[in-house]
Amino acid sequence: MSDHQSTPHKTLTSVADLVDAGLAHGDHEVLEKVAEEFRVAITPELRQIIDPGPAPDPIRAQFVPSPEELETHDWETGDPIGDEVHEAVKGVTHRYPDRVLLKPTHTCRVYCRFCFRREKVGDVREQLSDNELGNALDYIRSHQQIWEVILSGGDPLVLADRRLAKLMAELEAIDHVKVIRFHTRLPIADPDRITAGLLSALAVKKAVYVVVHCNHARELTPSVRAAIARLVDGGIPVLSQTVLLKGVNDTAADLRDLMRALVENRVKPYYLHHPDLARGTGHFRVSIRRGLELVRALRGFVSGLCQPTYVLDIPGGFGKVPLTPQSLRETGTGAYDVQDFRGETHAYLDPLDIRERPASISGATSETPET
Predict the structure, then answer these.
(1) Closest alpha carbon to 336 in 281, 253, 274
(2) Is the pTM of this model over 0.90?
(3) Are residues 331 and 183 in the same domain?
(4) Which of the residues are catalytic?
(5) pLDDT digits (tens, 9 = 90+) for 286-333
(6) Are 29 and 89 part of one and the same domain?
């Protein structure tokens, strides 16, 4: 038995690990090329819920590398939402007037195959040194309009409790910062990370929110539900963000089951993201028209508590826009004008030909609409 096979509780970080776990399908040499381009990490928690068989599996699709990731298109980019355009200092993205992203780390416990920062996650050159983190905090201190700090990355909850507590104390001491928000995959990928020590590190007097990334109801295992309960019972409101992904959650039934499961576990659905134009992610992409149909399918048949806001991050760094008839105007084949939060209009080309006959909405129910 190999070392890989003898350690079922280790994180899988290579194609060799995937082979030994029975998760590598297809040409292993091609998968090695994918892994050279985009990092691999699958935690034991997620490994347990991946169907290893050859049939399509929504969990495996999110985390196990695929040869399709080597297929790239002209419209794809290494910085699909324009982080670099708004980088104020290293680790700080200041896109909106009253809030900033603070990215103290670019490490994750799991690497999603559709990540919009997949070009940078896991790169040691992107980690903030103590001096760089100090510069980032100085920037926040010197800009009085910053009301909210959003900790992202990477995954900020991979930081040690002591470092998190120190960072939270620094942010708490900045008077004009009123809200601290975490964007994280940790409760899903590594629920044991949600410990009393972590909760103590996050315990400040300012408003703290956790937004957990979850894409499929099967990700909400008993241990994940318990981790979320520890956060909520610890006084931290939990919201969710979901990426709309072909083959993962692109049916009304999939989205209905996910949103209901989240609300049942005291998580408020927040964003449903239209997939970003990240390099090598075309096989996950759905059309905007399909996304709008799915959102409409939820409206009548799922409680208002279960409704996320369907958003597009406009390429070039122009920010998120809700995909609604009020903010979106179709101008041609796959072409739209979208209006950003400043009221400015930008052209957006959907790479899928949405003039094709829309697919029927599978999974729609005939329940009585709820309010």
Answers:
(1) 274
(2) no
(3) yes
(4) 95-96, 99, 108, 112, 115, 117, 276, 313, 320
(5) 999 999 999 989 987 899 999 999 999 999 899 999 998 777 888 888
(6) no
